[in-house]
Amino acid sequence: MRKRLDADATREAILTAALESFSERGYGATSISQVASRAKVTKSLVLYHFESKETLWQTTLEAHVRPMVQLFLKYANGDPSLSFRDVIRTRFDFMKASPHLSRLMTWLTLESAPLPIPIDQIAPRVFARAKAELHDSGEPELVAALALGAVDSWFRYRLLLERMAQIPAGDSSLDDQYLDLVLKLVPEVKR
After folding, report:
1. What digits encode the pLDDT tens for the residues 81-93?
2. Domain ranges in the chain?
3. Hey, CA dihedral for 91, 94, 96, 99, is it positive or negative?
4. Which end of the chain is more exposed for a tag (fewer CB within 10 A), N or C?
5. What is the pLDDT of residue 44?
6. Whether domain 7-185 has CATH 3.40.50.300
């Protein structure tokens, strides 16, 4: 006899399976059937909870980037307690704590997977505020893009860099050193 899960547990099992599948294979190469198999549910049950692969992808991303999106939203809305350096530092810490997120972000750059709606709407406002905040840096858009890209790249390529540079694996002091270097790109703002 099959064990029945409650709706919340089923939804959570599907989201966990989707996170693992999308992280490993990307949006394009992941099917609803693969997610269902990994979650040990039927394809129709996945579609009952999420209606389409795009909805499942967006829900998976939103569930895992929500704290970062909330930070970006506060920054975009002009929260005076936040600087772009705070955004960089928090994004770094968030990526460090969420290895799947780095892989999902990599897939976003490699294929034309749909962006979660809040990110699509907030990103231009984040860059507009960063541009205003970093105006003395010469090329504020490039500084902002370089700093965000450097954070993402660290987590995307860290294992490869450890092997190539023969750095001891898992040396967390490297994370701190790298973040310090990235923050040197972003001028401090007087509040």
Report:
1. 999 999 999 999 9
2. 7-185
3. negative
4. N
5. 94
6. no
